[in-house]
Amino acid sequence: MNTAQRTQGPVVLVTGAGTGIGRATARAFAADGAYVLAVGRREEPLAGTAADFPGIRPYAADITADGAPERIVSAALDAYGRLDVLVNNAGIVGDQALGSLTPDGIRPQFDTNLFAPALLTQAALPALEASGRGAIVNVSTSVGQRAWPGNSLYAATKTALELLTRSWAVELAPRGIRVNAVAPGAVETPIGAHRGLSEEEEARVREWQIAHTPLGRRGTPEEVAWAIRQLAAPEASFVTGAVLPVDGGAVAG
């Protein structure tokens, strides 16, 4: 029996929705009347994302697990009957310089930042095409357009995601699906804590980032979420293959 609820607003799937940019994105879409499947590894942060937002449905899943892309897309279709927007936001950062690389350090970054978005996008294609207004927004990084000594693998995965964005935009245009990306710069998120940085280390990183950002501050997750929502909006129907910097001028500077 089809248990999907009838929806008026768009249906959006956001990965990495438990904290930071993903949480802000899920809430921004929901505040605008969308129905959101918020995907993340941990139930508790997802519940926090959904708090006070009845349009958000948490779905705990590891996007890198075998069969996860198909299960995630099925969850969205079971809940809402369709899928209009996919936001590939989930990502992890490593801290391995050349000379200290290990397979166990490399694989998680490629699995989460590159392989999982590719497979999830593939699983979502039939639903996005059936929508008639399908849109994909990938979350890259401004670091992908600069050197990042000591952390080149993370930048490499995100640079590859930008190439996929442009390639998919051309490949999927005949199917009516638009593909764009945002490239955030320094943003106030828990990513430092997730990397295991101490408060002192995080303070040094923050100081360096601000010094190299022309606007003189870090961005907020809500500012990145705004850009994601705009790229997915029907009003952006002639925009595809774009990578939009949201970095306070860091790359231009």
UniProtKB/TrEMBL annotation:
Gene3D superfamilies reported for this sequence: NAD(P)-binding Rossmann-like Domain (3.40.50.720)
InterPro entries in the record: NAD(P)-bd_dom_sf, SDR_fam
PANTHER family with a match to the protein in the record: EG:BACR7A4.14 PROTEIN-RELATED, ZGC:101858
Protein name (database record): SDR family oxidoreductase
Gene source species: Streptomyces albiaxialis
